[in-house]
Amino acid sequence: MEKGKILDVSGVSAGYGQIQVIWDCTLDVLSKETVLLLGPNGAGKTTLLKTIAGVIRASSGNVHFNGNDVTKLPVHTRAKMGLVFISETSLYPSMTVRENLYMSSLHCSSPFAGRLQAVYALFPDLRRLEKERASSLSGGQRKMLIIARAVISEPSLLVVDEPSSGLSPLFTERVMSLLSRLKGMGIPALVSEQNVEFLSLADRAFVMDHGRIVHSGTPEEVARSNLLGNAYFGV
Ligand code: ATP
């Protein structure tokens, strides 16, 4: 594996039961990079991220993380290694904000109190909401908590599935500014999105359509590419 490559996904195919959904997907993330996986509804972005995280198994191909072949490792083992997957289902609804953050830090060696203060500095709204149950938060607040849970677990790589889904434009902007701050902290991320505005955050982007990676390049190259039009509008 190339030096500085934190994630190397090679020829991965996967699906659900007998139904294959993604074919021969290859992508990589270098250290400190934010990489965008862009594509329309149903392109297979979530399925690819789940395969990278270990939620579902690849039927062929390999996933290397920090130089280790993790293709056959379960999701919790990959998470302990620092490959942290952020999806809509990443919360304990009946626990408070603080308890949710605590649950994400159980495996960390440094004291919880210090990491909690660092996360509250990054997400000031969560300090105010710390005694609220996760189930009582708004969609945007829940998204903040999901990202905060990932950050407090000291990830080596954040894998974020559609951070803007279900959010108002205002909250989408806030999530984008948060991701950009995480990027400033040097935390590498692979982010899936339908929203092309997220190209502004990315160092590189991959375009997915009908279960395949159909293009990759710099955000400028991808924005100029006809393939983006093909994937989104079939033109
Ligand atoms: P969206 O932006 O709508 O979430 P996506 O690009 O993330 O789309 P996926 O969610 O990976 O796409 O879905 C790709 C295909 O896999 C779709 O045709 C979808 O219907 C199918 N699919 C997703 N989840 C399952 C499942 N649990 N069982 C069977 N098929 C599924």
UniProtKB/TrEMBL annotation:
Signal peptide: none
Cell inner membrane among keywords: no
Highest taxon of source: Archaea
Spans through the membrane: none
Family annotation (SMART domains): AAA
Biological process according to GO: L-amino acid transport
MF-aspect GO terms: ATP binding; ATP hydrolysis activity; branched-chain amino acid transmembrane transporter activity
Record's keyword terms, sorted: Amino-acid transport, ATP-binding, Nucleotide-binding, Transport
Gene3D superfamilies: P-loop containing nucleotide triphosphate hydrolases
ABC transporter domain segment(s): 7-235
CDD domains with a match to the protein in the record: ABC_TM1139_LivF_branched
InterPro entries: AAA+_ATPase, ABC_transporter-like_ATP-bd, ABC_transporter-like_CS, BCAA_Transport_ATP-bd_LivF, P-loop_NTPase
PANTHER family, alphabetized: HIGH-AFFINITY BRANCHED-CHAIN AMINO ACID TRANSPORT ATP-BINDING PROTEIN LIVF
Family of the protein in this entry: Belongs to the ABC transporter superfamily.
Protein name as catalogued: ABC transporter ATP-binding protein
Organism, as annotated: Candidatus Sysuiplasma superficiale
Organismal lineage: Archaea, Methanobacteriati, Thermoplasmatota, Thermoplasmata, Candidatus Sysuiplasmatales
